[in-house]
Amino acid sequence: MPSFDKINRRAHLYLGLLLMPWLLMYGLSSFIIIHQSWFGANKEQAWEPLFEKQYSRLVPESGDLRDTAQAILKDCNLEGAFWADKPNPDTLRIDRFSFWDSTRLLYSIKEQKLQAQRQRMHLSQAVIRMHFRGGYGQPTVRDKFWGFLVDLACIGIIIWVASGLLMWWRLPRLRNWGAVAVGGGILSFLVLIWTI
Amino acid sequence: MLMYALSTLVMTHRDFVRSFYPSQNPAMVIERELDYSRSFPESATREEIGLQILRDIDLDGTHYVSGGKDAKPIVINRQQALTPRRITFDPSTRKIRIEREEFRASSFLERMHRRRGYNSYSLSNTWGFTVDLAVVTMAFWSLSGIWLWWELKPTRGWGTASWVAGLALFAFLAFLL
Questions:
Q1: Could you tell me if A24 lies within 8 Å of chain B, comparing CB atoms?
Q2: Interface pTM (ipTM) of the complex?
Q3: What is the pLDDT of residues B46-55, one digit of tens each?
Q4: Whole-number Å distance between alpha carbons of A178 and A184
Q5: Which of A146, A168, A122, A68 is nearest to B171 (CA)?
Q6: Which residues of B137-159 are buried (b: 16+ CB within 10 A; e: fewer)?
Q7: Could A196 and B13 be called an inter-chain contact, meaning their C-beta atoms sit closer than 8 Å?
Q8: Band (A4; pLDDT cuts 50, 70, 90)
């Protein structure tokens, strides 16, 4: 039977290795978000026309537009993560997005015309999209699975912190300098929270 | 790191977290209202006016200004970690109203998660620096962790399985999503 210490060390190690791509992605994307202009991530990419066609579908005047938007996406073979809104009473706008591009569908209710445009993302913008993606609100299983992995990464970080603290405490020769690092971190965090 | 992990959970489960509170957003409580007689030149921008008001009421610090067009009130959002404030200056009545946001743990976490970058306030810049430091440290931890793992020969088998599984899953979803 392995000891608790061994389980703790192995959990720290294997969880860290499994979640390493997410941690690296969050680190890199945070740096890009803070310094967007350095990476050109704040530049709006051009929209390329994809298609324009006659199309007919009943759009509710008010209420949830997601069911209608999802049906339109299905008709266009574009199912996946999306947002939908009505920028004006005549237009339904659907933003079908992935990490690497966006497809914008504009449906004119009056003219019964559907127009699609596509916008490709720079690598830096794709990484930022990975950073902001999470939760279980999107329709496909793969989107929900990404949401689950984001939750797992968060719980993994909490376990990492707790197991790291325990591992440090079990190394008596590192207690003093470790205490300085932990104490300094907590103190500076509290001081900044209190003052900024 | 703890703050970022907890705040991400709060943000990805916002509806669930909000269900514990009586309202969607924290209430704004009026702290004080005062007369404000200082006059500003026609050419003064709303940012200049906002900064002067903050200095006059001893609340100078990180903020952004909105409103103020067509003689409408100028709204100064004074960003503070624990008690953000909204200061409204109505030029027609020459009154200032100061409101503070009621503390809510979830809003606090979201606020701190989003706070970043540099401005003209040194304490705020210290926070910006610590965010940069946390980001670089995350990358360092990830890469140094691989090296530390490789030095532990008995863990190479399961370690390789965990690492490759993580990389494969990430690459697969990054391609698919």
A1: yes
A2: 0.84
A3: 888 899 999 9
A4: 10
A5: A146
A6: ebbebbeebeeebeeeeebeeeb
A7: no
A8: confident
pTM: 0.84
A12: nearest CA partner in chain B: B145
Residues B15-38 pLDDT 10s:
899 999 999 889 999 999 999 888
Confirm or reject contact between A13 and chain B (CB < 8 A). Answer: yes
Q: Which of the listed residues A79, A101, A121 is the one where a domain comes to its end?
A: A121
Q: How many domains does chain A have?
A: 2
Q: Which one-letter DSSP state was computed for residue A28?
A: H
- Residue A111 belongs to domain with CATH number: 3.30.160
Indicate if the pLDDT at residue A158 is higher than 90: yes
Measured in angstroms, the CA of B96 and the nearest CA of chain A are apart by 23
The answer to whether residue A38 neighbours chain B at the CB level (below 8 Å) is no
Interface membership of A184 toward B (CB under 8 Å):
no
A140/A179 same-domain check: yes
Note down the domain range covering A158.
4-39+129-195
Q: Which residue of A has its CA nearest to B13?
A: A135
Q: Do B116 and A28 touch (CB under 8 A)?
A: no
Residues of chain A with C-beta less than 8 angstroms from the C-beta of B167: 20-21
Q: Angle between the B122-151 and B156-176 helix axes, to the nearest 10 degrees?
A: 130
**Rounded percentage of chain A residues whose pLDDT exceeds 90:** 57
Residue in B81, B141, B159 closest to A14 by CB = B159
The two structure tokens encoding residue A180: 């300085």
Sequence-separated (6 or more) residues with CB below 8 Å from residue B39: none
* Tens-digit pLDDT profile for residues A38-88: 888 888 888 999 998 998 888 887 778 898 999 999 999 999 999 998 888
Q: Do A27 and B138 touch (CB under 8 A)?
A: yes
In contact, A99 and B173? CB cutoff 8 Å: no
Q: Is A135 on the interface with B (CB under 8 A)?
A: yes
